[in-house]
Protein 1
Amino acid sequence: MFAVYAAEPKPDDPLAALTVGERPDPEPRDGWVTVTVKAASLNMHDLWTLRGVGIKAERFPMILGCDGAGVLDDGTEVVLHSVIGDPDWSGDETLDPKRTLLTELHQGTFADKVIVPRRNALPKPAELSFAEGACMGTAWLTAYRMLFVKSGLRPGQTMLVQGASGGVSTALIQLGRAAGYRVWVTGRSAEKRAVAADLGAHQTFESGARLPERVDAVFETVGKATWSHSMKALKPGGIIVVSGSTSGPDANADLQRLFFLQLRVVGSTMGTRDELADLLRFCASANLRPKIGTEVPMDQAPAGFQAMADGETAGKIVFTR
Ligand SMILES: NC(=O)c1ccc[n+]([C@@H]2O[C@H](COP(=O)([O-])OP(=O)(O)OC[C@H]3O[C@@H](n4cnc5c(N)ncnc54)[C@H](OP(=O)(O)O)[C@@H]3O)[C@@H](O)[C@H]2O)c1
């Protein structure tokens, strides 16, 4: 079948490992369903995979794509939950030590077909297109958990999103605005800040800019480049929710500020199947649609990867079949 895959790990030149070609059809498995992929979206995770981060060398070649929406053999339209847990685990799947994301152990969604455990295929709300549904499983689910499960923020309080135009950032902005938070955003260029403003950000700032007042919560995926600003942006007792470190993980902890202002730093990863079901219902009932910056046929995936590697994002990058 057609597939976009990582041929081998290439730590220093990830795009050189990206291959558009043919891979074997998935073998049916008991308790798993076959999904004919209609749309899938790109995440930074796919670039990490090309670099060989978070995946063992013997697992290559690996079909890329953590997110997807498509159709089951019986015609049911589905959105995929990409956290594949141990069948014996009960409770929050994100805490299962044996969990993997699609593309870490099992083949991903940038292909004609993908197989997933039956419980990982959720009914797609009719209100969402396949392309919109394909944005939900990673970036939007991660943003949903950061905001509504981890932050403890109440409507009316002020949140700061570090980064304006990326998948998780745009999801945080749209969800935060829909939930009634005061949404502030930093972006690296006027163009990127305009994306955030169009999505409903109340104020936008240059990266690292002094803010008019301190905020209740900061949402971090950038890491080293913005961490010090995030720590300084918080009110006493404020919280940083962090789910990524794109610019590097080794940020200065700023421990004196942490204890003296009684700040809280909380990690967040992906979300549970139930949280994805709630997110899908929220999008349908609040008339919320993910910002898609680029939507191209899957055979043009390399252009999307190049744009993400160059930081040229304006919302989610979606590939269709
Ligand atoms: N833990 C999890 O479950 C989970 C889930 C999803 C994503 N993530 C992580 O979250 C991060 C973002 O993923 P994504 O898919 O949203 O990527 P993306 O679409 O490429 O977005 C990248 C974002 O990072 C910002 N950024 C990058 N470098 C920066 C720098 N040096 N200074 C300031 N801002 C910078 C960009 O801000 P501008 O708009 O200003 O350019 C943009 O908003 C990745 O590290 C990813 O691995 C983690």
Protein 2
Amino acid sequence: MVATTDQWISDRTGIKQRRIAAEGEVTSDMAVVAARQALAMAGCRAEDLDMIIVATVSADMPLPSCAVLVQAKLGAVRAFAFDVSAACAGSLFGLSIADQFIRAGQAKRVLVIGAELLSRLVDWTDRNTCVLFGDAAGAMVVGPTPDAKRGLMSTHLHSDGSAAGILTIPGGGSQYPQSEEVLSKNMHKIAMNGREIYKFAIRVLPPAILEALDANGFRVDDIDHIVSHQANARIVESVLERLGVPLEKCWMNLERYGNTSSASLPISLDEANRAGRLKEGDLIAMMAIGAGMTWGSALMRW
Ligand SMILES: CC(C)(COP(=O)(O)OP(=O)(O)OC[C@H]1O[C@@H](n2cnc3c(N)ncnc32)[C@H](O)[C@@H]1OP(=O)(O)O)[C@@H](O)C(=O)NCCC(=O)NCCS
């Protein structure tokens, strides 16, 4: 479809495979599959949920939110539901919102989902982007713990809107509403300056991790695992090298899924857990970065 090679893609990004949603499958369908698995693992019924947050930039439709569609499909009748738009950092932003509601006593069972169907938003004639993104969903059930030594310790969120232009879908909103021109110029598809994102990511992610450690009185060596958004293997390697964290401490799955945007953080956490990598008491540092730019970190005692 485009002038590229498997060699170029794997050398520059670490990606070997990507998943594409079935025809007719929509974002909320994928979100519900992930949500059911998370609910089963948490031993929680959909009816017991207080709140559903779906982090997505590729919802089923502009209105209403993906989260209310998920709520209806799950039968989570008590929950209020809304979407979070923070691109690839969306699940981290969602987790932070869940944490604040739980700490404030406003919610006890929160479902945080990252779900993206970006294959319908990439320009399949643009080799800069179409080789990177895959479709996926991941979900987490978040709740209070009586054990003060375990759970989410803090989240640290950041945004820099002055860098908004480096990763956009410019058409289809109030600035460039759908029109023949928007369609003919592919303005309804993802446009990206990959090199600028790369530089931005390796500049801001190490301080975000250090900020999380400082806030809780830990040092880099105390980290047992890094759970990172999977955008590009070289970004992760470079960030860990700057921090002085061995790469073996980071769960990598980019080679199988590509960049799955907001889905990548919950999927990585789940895979590391199911693989038996996370032991009770382990210190987990999470980091994510996405369009906006948006980025942040979280620290958790497993
Ligand atoms: C996209 C990315 C892999 C490109 O790697 P890079 O080393 O920065 O490469 P450049 O963008 O400088 O491009 C180098 C050349 O490769 C070409 N190229 C881009 N995509 C290509 C592809 N799929 N196949 C072959 N060549 C490609 C470019 O056109 C450019 O050619 P030119 O020099 O003739 O113009 C890298 O910048 C990246 O991963 N950035 C982060 C993107 C990201 O994570 N986005 C999501 C944020 S959450």
